[in-house]
Amino acid sequence: MVRALSGKEIVTTEDELLAAIRKVLSAEDPGVIVPIGDDAAVVDPGGHHTVLTVDTLVDGVHFDRSVAGAHDIGFKAVTVNVSDVAAMGGSPRYGLVALALPPDVELAWVMELYGGMRQAADQYALSLVGGDTVRSDRVVVSVTVMGRVAEGRAARRSGARPGDALVVTGALGGAAGGLRIIRSDPAQGARMAGTDWGRELLSAQLRPMARVGEAETLVQAGTSAMMDISDGLALDLWRMCTASGVGARVVLDQVPVDPALGPLADAEGIDPLELALHGGEDYELLAALPPEAVEDAAAKIKERFGTTLASIGAVTERGFMAVGSDGRERPLEPRGWDHFA
Ligand SMILES: [Mg+2]
Fold first, then answer.
1. Ligand 1 center to residue 326 CA distance, Å?
2. Contact of 310 with 184, CB cutoff 8 Å
3. C-alpha of residue 135 to centroid of ligand 1, in Å
4. Ligand 1 centre distance from Cα of residue 122 (Å)
5. How far is the CA of 83 from the centre of ligand 1 (A)?
């Protein structure tokens, strides 16, 4: 039963919770043979390869329930998984949600969480077909997404070749800027959150976008390696280079720094380029492409999705270097967002 306590509904049994969740998630999808509500879901992915990914968000580690709304947390929990499927060149199809809840969480909070997940699922055309709920001392949201990719078209991070151009979608550093606002002292944070640039940075942190169509376009353009930037450009590029057995040379002036970081730099004394290189959670795409394919891919991505594609440097034989505005090369530190730090 869901019992009323001081006017609030508190979740007490799993069946009640599941019934409420089912109402939020129910949807028709021709690929779903047995939907949520049975022992397991049955889906028909069609004649493709299957892409599988899981991501877990923990209260106090990946989000802060006292700052982020339940809707945003749910939206982001689905989006980050969609981003990983997209980074393989796949399209998301089905999702599973495992949720751990402390006893004091209100039913309204849980419904808002699922509302956010449902919104992201609808946005990326995936069906949430099942999951699990357990008791815990803190909120943990774990989302598994299954997607599909045409046979032989999965974009791995291990295929970058010396001479390839390195490209990045959108702008970087915004999510780290938003986190900076969330973690600043409350009065200053509220001031910044009231500005246009503050809202943009908070939105980058709380409501990231997954670049599904952009990734498909990059695969069509002949990308040799691709990944999403979840832990910062420098660290993720280093991972791509390590997987591919190559080096990289990044031209710092060409790194697309989120313009909303300019005013944050004035207010907080941060270095926008530092956040763009080493901040996390932007969920933009990093790809290696034959140089002759870049211009056409950028034009298509701009035309189809309104997203910019920046050429930030090149894949090299070895070394991990950054070129400053003075033209000098120096080592680029493979440092980023570490979830275990
Ligand atoms: Mg990834």
1. 33
2. no
3. 29
4. 21
5. 7
Give the distance (Å) from ligand 1 centre to CA of residue 84.
Answer: 5
Q: Distance, CA 329 to ligand 1 centroid (Å)?
A: 28
In the reported structure, the alpha carbon of residue 194 is separated from the centroid of ligand 1 by a whole-number distance in angstroms of 32
Contact 24, 52 (CB under 8 A): no
Confidence of residue 65 (pLDDT cuts 50, 70, 90): confident
Q: What is the pLDDT of residue 146?
A: 95
CA of 61 to the centre of ligand 1 (A): 18
Summarize pLDDT for 138-174 with one digit per residue, the tens: 999 999 999 999 888 899 999 999 999 999 999 999 9
Q: Cβ distance 109 to 70 under 8 Å?
A: yes
| 140-149, strands of its sheet edge to edge | 49-58, 140-149, 91-101, 127-135
Distance from the alpha carbon of residue 185 to the mean position of ligand 1, in angstroms: 31
Per-residue pLDDT, 5: 47
Which position has the higher pLDDT, 84 or 13? 84
Please tell me the distance between residue 79's alpha carbon and the centre of ligand 1 in angstroms: 12
Give the separation between CA 145 and CA 98, rounded to whole angstroms: 12
Q: Which residues, 6+ apart, have CB-to-CB distance to 326 below 8 Å?
A: none
pLDDT recorded at residue 12: 66
Name the pTM for this structure.
0.91
Residue 117 has pLDDT above 90, yes or no: yes
Q: Are 59 and 65 in contact (CB under 8 A)?
A: yes
